[in-house]
Design goal:
alpha+beta, 13 strands, 45% helix, 21 helices
Amino acid sequence: MGLTTNSRIVRLALGCIQPADPEAVSSFLSKAFKYEAELIPEESIQEIFDQWSADGEVVCVHKKTNLYSLTRLGDSRLNREERRLRDRTRLFLLKELRSAKLHLPEAGEPEKADASSAVIVDQPLQEDERPTGAARPPRVARRAARACWPLLAKQLFVGSSSRASGPFFRFLSFPTIKACAQANGLAEIQKDGIDISEISLAIGISPQLIGLLIHKPERHYRTFEIPKANGKVRVIQSPRTMMKVVQYFLLDYLLYKIPVHISATAYSRGCTIRANAEVHVGKKYVANIDIENFFPSIKWQLVHKVLAMGGLEDKTAYLISKITSYQGGLPQGAPTSAHLSNVVLYPFDKEMFVFCESVGVGYTRYADDITFSGDDIDAVRSAVEKATQLLAFLKLEINKDKTRVFGPSSRQVVTGVVVNEWAQPSREKRRKLRAELHQAKKNPEKYASRVDEIRGMSAYMLSFAGENRPVGGLSHSYVESSLARLTSYVNAMKEQESSTVPPSVP
């Protein structure tokens, strides 16, 4: 096999798993071509890398571990077929990388993958308790520090995880955004921000693909409907793999630093439905309003404007707003939509926070569910009117059918949680779970297929229990004994999968 052919194969392999050293490239090629021995010796690959470095086609991004990434010039050497193959291969590998499912290491290897996410977060904000009043300062975004994915080549061949030692690059394929700009042939980052070229280099895909994601998004989404509790349907626009991985990159590497207000209690680390509800416990009046058609109503132009206000350069803010939008608004199923909705409504949350504090009203927003509470009905109603006006300015409409004001003698509900005396799920939900646990304990064979669902419902219910207070008669001991019997049956059933005789109930 001649040097020219080897160089093309090596370039393609490096593009798939960069940043990588010669050993990883050789191993990747051996696996791809199912060779027992090395397809191309490491020494030959190192010679090719040395030549490319001199020509400006690759850059050594970590000298200690001898890791290389393609520059814009080196990436342009891929022909059309190689580029398409590289893009598809790399994005599907990155998808598994982020979820820490890329590789299960063989026995005896020194470094093992754990079950944690492949995204590392440096010292995330952890609150001991959720504040119980509105008078609190804003907090940082859902990730308090930068997130980095582990090296693809390392996880692929060693099984490393986000907890493993080693370099974690600040821009995926490059140690910094500036280094990425330099690999694009620029001395410094442009004043108006990074663009498609730098983003594509960092992710390790072609700029042509990102252009298609922006201009032909219908090719990269699938749309389906799911039923809602009121009998209507919710339209989900779910990004396909290539679009989703790019959106995850933007979320983890660029959007982490945009602030989210403390009043926004959904999609933020350390916040729960219970924490959202507890702000309103014991108040005389509780008012709920709901934003109509929430995600699609947040237009990309508004996202662009708020991102620029939040500190991103204009070109970068524009690029993110286009990649993360579909049919003009935020898609319901995109991984970036939740965080961006909180980012976009930061000015709204901030103004409502100040207003509610001035009139003695508690305020939280859980996604599109906005709640006010207080002991003065006029103050609560004034907060509702203020929110309606501010949302109208953002071209967001209130769902009048879901606007409710609860008095002291009625059942006060916040995002499905009753808050009259303390936060707990509704009586209907408590009774339903208690009945299902009772039946599952008596007839585990009928509930074996729903074991995960019942575990989840139980965990949610028990999260509302106090130290000496069960939730609607559901004590920890009762729930645990019911689940233990169901789990025991499921485990026995798994052991006898090959048998036609059903397992006996323990």
